[in-house]
Amino acid sequence: MRAAEQAGLRIRAYILLSLLTGARTEEDRALTWSHVVTFDDRRKTSLPVTEAGWDHAEFAV
Q1: CB–CB of 53/42 below 8 Å?
Q2: How many Cα atoms sit within 13 Å of 23 on the Cβ side?
Q3: How far apart are CA 34 and CA 29, in angstroms?
Q4: For position 22, what pLDDT does the model report?
Q5: Is the pLDDT assigned to residue 20 strictly greater than 80?
Q6: What is the pLDDT of residue 56?
Q7: HEC sequence for the chain
């Protein structure tokens, strides 16, 4: 975890996702933004982050 904190933003997210979910790195690499969801309190439902209005351009490849 300390090493991840020192790493760049993208590699840190990759390391933490692997550690905290138990997913294999091969599984993590296949993920795209369309796989990421968030709970929208206003709509009381889960939505893909792209529909929820998150600004994730800094993470885009």
Answers
A1: no
A2: 15
A3: 13
A4: 92
A5: yes
A6: 61
A7: CHHHHHCCHHHHHHHHHHHHHCCCHHHHHCCCHHHCEEEECCCCEEEEHHHHCCCCHHHCC
Of 37, 10, 14, 46, whose CA–CA distance to 27 is shortest? 14
pLDDT in tens, 30-48: 888 778 888 888 889 998 8
- Give the chain's mean pLDDT: 81
Q: Tell me, what amino acid is at 57?
A: A
Distance (Å, rounded) from C-alpha 57 to C-alpha 61? 9
Q: What is the pLDDT of residue 45?
A: 92
Residue type, 26: E
Taking CA atoms, 10 is separated from 19, 24, 45, 57, 59, in Å, by 14, 17, 27, 12, 7
